[in-house]
Structure prediction request, 144 residues.
Amino acid sequence: MHADLPFADQHRGNPQSWNLYFYARNNPLRYLDNNGEEVKEAIKIATYAVHGATAREARNNAKQTSGFKSETGEPMSGETKATMTVTNEKWQISSNPTNNLVDSYATAEVTSADVKLDQTITLPEWKERDSADPAEQKNWDTSQ
Prediction:
């Protein structure tokens, strides 16, 4: 994943085309455009079912059933996990050997690498939402 090449697709009539991160809608951590033709969500959204007659009951059910806890042990209704993987590393190693072992040294420098960031957000899905009254639906939608 990298920015578009300078001047490759820039057009005077479209100022946004000069933005090198437009390929990912200005958010290369959230969106991917692997082939230059299609922008995809880089974050995976997972859900689990919660139940309740009201938004409040559903939120309480989420905290009880999710199994997620904060650093202080408080129950949480959602969780974000991120995993970063580094691949295709290229190194440049140089050394300065001398007759004196104490003065000899070597350095290693990563000259290029690919970094893959996998993010998953797990959220509750209130199963009774569509049958709840509009005020409860709004309460649920704005409290997440």
Observations:
- Strands lie at 31-32, 40-41, 43-50, 68-69, 75-76, 79-96, 105-126.
- The chain has two domains: 1-41, 42-143.
